[in-house]
Amino acid sequence: MYSGKPRKLLHERNIRVGDRIAVEKNGIRYEGTLMPRPEIGDAACIVIKLDNGYNIGIDCRNVRISKLTDEKNGREGVATGTFRMNKKNPQVSIVTTGGTITSKIDYKTGGVTSLTTPDDLQRKIPRLGKFAKIRIENPFNIMSESMTPSHWQNLAKVVARELRKSEGVIVTHGTDTLHFTAAALSFMLRDLNKPVVLTGSQRSTDRGSSDGFSNIICSARVALSDMAAVGICMHANMDDDYCIFTRGTKVRKMHTSRRDAFRPINDIPLAKVWPDGKIEKLQGVPPRKKGAVKLETSFEPKVALVKFYPGCNPEIIDYYLKKGYKGLVVEVTGLGQLPTYGKNSWIDTIKRATERGMLIFGAAETIYGRLNPNVYTEGRLTKEAGLIHLQDMLPETAYVKLGWVLGQTKKPEKVAERMLTNYAGEMRDRTVMGTFLV
Ligand code: ASP
What we know:
Blueprint: H1 4-12, E1 20-25, E2 28-35, E3 45-50, E4 55-59, E5 63-67, H2 70-73, E6 91-96, E7 103-105, E8 112-115, H3 118-124, H4 128-131, E9 133-137, H5 149-165, E10 168-172, H6 178-188, E11 189-190, E12 196-199, H7 212-223, E13 230-235, E14 243-247, E15 251-253, E16 262-264, E17 271-273, E18 279-281, E19 294-295, E20 303-307, H8 315-322, E21 327-332, H9 347-355, E22 359-364, H10 377-385, E23 388-389, H11 395-408, H12 412-419
Parallel strand pairs: 6-9, 6-10, 10-12, 12-13, 20-21, 21-22, 22-23
Antiparallel strand pairs: 1-2, 1-5, 2-3, 3-4, 7-8, 11-19, 13-14, 14-17, 15-16, 17-18
Helix pairs in contact: 5-6, 6-11
The structure holds aspartic acid.
């Protein structure tokens, strides 16, 4: 743990990791909880977690350190590990599923390894307790790359149950596949009556730069708002000032590491949200309503998302057909094309597969924009062969929707009709200006 000068200073004042302390340096006073020192950090520094949740390292030369008594502390729970809520606050359920947002640094290796308990999550964000009464549910703990449709089904059931108990529900989740889960909940929770807010964190909550705290605080603000929608609430920009809440079917992780990685696609955010509770709606969102949410969780797992690339052989479709897959979403080029001549022509394969009952849909591999198969001959022929173009729907959303629709019906005309029916804002009739790279 601490050694040298920091250890001596802390020892003299009987300060242990977890104690709430004040540190004065260069005329500035910092108050926070003493954290363990990462083994790979500067040995002359101590690390404290500030009240805003961020960790900072302070060089112990020329500092004054004091231990704060519980009275001076003024903030329940931070030092002792207990978390007290004002029971009169409106209740928000937090459903934790794993991922970086509920992970912590292993101070020996510096890597993100162990999962915190739900209690840890509450303790880390005492500010939440000021305006919300928190209930925690933890159906499973996994990194989001390990999510499967059966996790979505399980989660939808847990969220529906929590919606009956609380004013709104937050789902904390790994960011890598967060937008798939957001789409799944958007389809599976029918007649939504309250907000369902998915959030994650690009940096673990033990890092000074973690986005997790303000993401959760803004998510709780949305969960208590008058927006009955499923969406993702994460940082709006590289600063820590506000978040955006974006429709669960029109959002995608667009960066490996930036805190503002979740961007609306072919859409604008539903709202901007500030940690102090200010919410600026950017488009019409259905308000809360009476009645219970209906669950439609059936899902056909034999569906796949295939990305076309130059040289891609159409026999990939035969593979899925042979394996008993019922439907495919193909990421098609440009306005909706695939090769129509030469040995890699997809036309005969699409015809053969659709005649044998497989349903094949196209979504734009450009991610942004709307398909229009009528512009190029290659698009027209692809359409005539049986591929159905899904307008401005995101490929990931289309994949989730296809599994969900096929879970309800296997009748080809019904599946086609439902895939082109708007259930959760996944398609827009017209292209909205100002939605590119926002
Ligand atoms: N791989 C992690 C996950 O998606 C990353 C994260 O949590 O942000 O679960």
